[in-house]
Structure formats: C-alpha cells, structure tokens
Amino acid sequence: MIEIQDVRKSFGALEVLKGIDLTVAKGEVLTVIGGSGSGKSTLLTCINGLEPIDSGRILVDGTEVHAKSTDLNKLRRKIGIVFQQFNAFPHLTVLENVTLAPRKVLGMSRADAEAVAVRQLQHVGLSDKLGVYPGRMSGGQQQRMAIARALAMQPGYMLFDEVTSALDPMLVGEVLDTLRMLASEGMTMICVTHEMKFAREVSDRVAFFHQGVMAEIAPPAQLFDAPQTPELQRFLAATA
Ligand code: ADP
Ligand code: MG
Predict the structure, then answer these.
(1) Which of 20, 100, 217, 240 has the most CB atoms around it within 10 Å of its CB?
(2) Which pLDDT tens digit goes with each residue over 123-165?
(3) Centroid of ligand 1 to alpha carbon of 191 (angstroms)
(4) What CATH number is associated with residue 14?
(5) What is the pTM of this model?
(6) What are the pLDDT digits (tens) for 194-229?
(7) Whose CA is nearest to atom 13 of ligand 1?
(8) What ipTM was reported for this prediction?
(9) Tens digits of per-residue pLDDT, 98-129?
(10) Which of 146, 172, 150 is nearest to 87 (CA)?
C-alpha cells in the first residue's frame, strides 16, 4: 500500500503540494484529475523518490520513501512509472528496450530477461514487434512498449502520468485498453489522466487536485455526478 501523510513540497517560493493525505490500497485503481500545474506530476515523482519532499511522509509497503536509510534503487523496482513522452532507447529493438532494466538492474540472464520481456510484450499486444526499432512504431505502440518495459520489472505498483496525452486521438484507445486490462488484473495503479470517461470506468476512486490541494476524492459516480466544490464543478464543466 502507498501512504501519503501531510506531504508538502515547494519549488522555490511556489508551494506545489500543500499537505496531501492519501492512502492507496493494494489492488486499488486511483485516477488523479485536475488542471495544469495543480501538482499531479509532482505527486507521482515524490512517490517514487525522484523528487524530495519538504515535510510529511510517503510510505510504500511500510518503507519511508524519503528516509535517509531507504535504498531508493531497491524501492523504485517496486514502482513502475510511465510518462507522457515515450522515453524509448531509439538504438535498441523493442525486445532490447524491455530486457535492459531486468538485465542491468535485476541482474537477470539474457534468456530469463527475454522470457519475461516476451511475456510482457505479448501482454500489451506487441509480440510481433520484438525485433523492430521504436521509431518504426506508432505512438500507441511505443507507449505500450513503455508499459511492457515497466511491467518487466515486476513492480507492485504502477504510476501513469498522462500516458495518452501525446498520442493522436486514434491511438488513445489502444493504450487505455492496456491500462484497463492491468486494472482488471488487480494491478495497484495511480493514473493521472485527462480521459474522464476512462477515469469513470476504471477507477475505484478519483482524486481532484486544485492548486496543490487534493480538493476532492470519491468513487467516480460520486465525484463526477455530485461534485462538492465549485472548483471541481468548474473543472468538469470545462472538460465536458
Ligand atoms: P501538473 O502535473 O498537475 O500539471 P506539476 O506537478 O507538473 O503539475 O507542477 C506543479 C507546479 O510546479 C507547476 O507550477 C510547475 O510549473 C511547477 N514545477 C514542476 N516541476 C518543477 C521543477 N522541477 N522546478 C520548478 N517548478 C516546477
Ligand atoms: Mg503533469
């Protein structure tokens, strides 16, 4: 489980997270919505320790992410993260992209890493692309490869930061289908997204961020159909 306790984070004079409290249970699918600059990406990068926090605590399976004694490399293996940009290694094939971290970070043999990679690439529907270079694939295929690459580390948690925002509209569906599949398999996920229909369908809960505050959190039917704050009402009206 992921426990976020009164987390504050500033960049210089700008307070980006103003005391966030949130617990994500094992198997839960949480989506995070909110306007640009509301702190959504910062929250994800704090959870996996890419960014330090100013106060509060984040615990992943009981381990405090920002404690000095925490082995961040070890902790990060538990937490897969996929960003809006594809971040593929262009000079490596799809199979090489997906086997790289299991070999280098987990120390798996080539054969073992390839077995895991082939399984994950099948899982995301890319078993016919093993020898292809990422640049020869569509954005949707590249993003599914990025998901397979994260899954190849066998993480306990997956964080998705607007993974469909850079895609042509035609390619959004195939990536959302991949996320839906992971959700249905019981993966614990935090998905920052602008896809409201998707958020409504897959989420156990939806959190609405506004100016560094988690202004609302509720099951999707409640959050979308009965928004409590004027900020969320305005946000939903603007995205409808
Ligand atoms: P969101 O993902 O909700 O759009 P972010 O978490 O990316 O918002 O950013 C929140 C605020 O923090 C924004 O005003 C952004 O400009 C600022 N910010 C984010 N990262 C940095 C950084 N590395 N240095 C300075 N300011 C940052
Ligand atoms: Mg962001």
Answers:
(1) 20
(2) 999 999 999 999 999 999 999 999 999 999 999 999 999 999 9
(3) 17
(4) 3.40.50.300
(5) 0.96
(6) 999 999 999 999 999 999 999 999 999 999 999 999
(7) 37
(8) 0.98
(9) 999 999 999 999 999 999 999 999 999 999 99
(10) 146
Whose C-alpha lies nearest to ligand 1, atom 5? 39
Give the mutation target among 10, 11, 161 for probing the ligand 1 site: most ligand atoms within 8 A of CB: 11
Half-sphere exposure of 38 (CA within 13 A, CB side): 21
Total domains in the chain come to 1
Task: Give residue 85's domain range.
Answer: 2-239
| Residue for token pair 């505050």 | 213
Torsion sign (Cα): 149, 152, 153, 158? positive
CA–centroid distance, residue 37 to ligand 1 (Å): 6
Q: Any residues with Cβ below 6 Å from ligand 1, and which?
A: 11, 14, 16, 34, 36-42
